[in-house]
Structure to design on (299 residues):
């Protein structure tokens, strides 16, 4: 069995960090992730730099990592303007984010969900040949404002989004980290049963409540084979004490390898990278395996 891990620290993990991480350091960390065997990396986002100043060098990071052999660099975009900016910078793999929940979508991208879905549909028309698209459904399980999301509502959102274009990859995002394994198994199973190919499914988990690995395992048992994760468990929100980042890539790799699953990732190299990322000024690192095995990386 094989799983694919999509490294999202350079976007989801870096974006809440202050001070600004120098572009040279971002590029070096992405190069180290590539050297550890990661081939799909979310290298940044094309968002309003006034709202997310950490991502203001996304175009430069994209350009300076383009030489890495076999790298599939994806970038997050929140709207049609982001799509235009990303394409102008040479991006070939877009991650378009829409929230399942109304208040989170308004807070995140300042539009209602219907407007976002219509704008997404418009942006899909006339995309250059060969540009791939992933749709991130944020708050697919839980919303910071509305709480637990009804599965029927989430499936209805996906129905409307996938009507625009079925050949996308969908990220089921546990934005708050409050999903539980039963919930993840239920929604993932429903999605896989309702939409087989050409739609692909990814689980994007956060470890805020310590359920990141349990939720990933539940997604795995439901049949999902692609997972987002962040080296060093980077992430968190400076305005939400106790909030943590994505499930740590090294924790997920450790678990999958223990389960006999191949990932193509070199864990010692990944640990060295995770330790370096965890030491970034202003970072809120997470994960457990780094502490358990950190001595190996240092040796
Ligand atoms: Zn996230």
């Amino acid at each position: 069995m094989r799983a694919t891990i999509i490294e999202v620290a350079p976007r989801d993990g870096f974006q809440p960090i202050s001070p600004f991480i120098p572009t040279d350091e971002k590029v070096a960390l992405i190069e180290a992730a590539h050297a550890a065997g990661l081939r799909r990396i979310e290298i940044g986002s094309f968002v309003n730099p006034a709202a997310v100043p950490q991502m203001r060098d996304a175009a430069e990071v994209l350009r300076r990592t383009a030489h890495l052999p076999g790298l599939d660099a994806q970038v997050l975009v929140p709207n049609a303007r982001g799509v235009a900016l990303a394409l102008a910078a040479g991006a070939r793999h877009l991650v378009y984010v829409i929230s399942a929940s109304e208040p989170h979508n308004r807070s995140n991208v300042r539009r209602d969900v219907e407007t976002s879905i219509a704008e997404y549909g418009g942006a899909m028309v006339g995309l250059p040949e060969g540009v791939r698209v992933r749709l991130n459904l944020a708050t697919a399980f839980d919303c910071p404002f509305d709480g637990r999301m009804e599965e029927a509502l989430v499936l209805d959102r996906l129905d409307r989004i996938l009507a625009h274009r079925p050949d996308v990859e969908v990220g089921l995002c546990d934005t708050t980290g409050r999903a539980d394994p039963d919930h993840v198994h239920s929604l993932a199973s429903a999605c896989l049963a309702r939409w087989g190919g050409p739609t692909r499914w990814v689980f994007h988990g956060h470890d805020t409540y310590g359920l990141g690995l349990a939720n990933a395992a539940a997604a795995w048992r439901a049949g999902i084979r692609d997972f987002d994760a962040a080296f060093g468990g980077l992430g968190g929100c400076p305005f939400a004490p106790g909030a943590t980042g994505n499930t740590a890539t090294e924790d997920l790799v450790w678990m999958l390898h223990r389960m006999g699953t191949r990932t193509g990732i070199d864990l010692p190299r990944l640990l060295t990278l995770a330790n370096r990322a965890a030491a970034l000024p202003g970072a809120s690192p997470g994960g457990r395996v780094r502490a358990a095995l950190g001595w190996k990386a240092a040796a």
About this structure: The chain has one domain: 4-292.
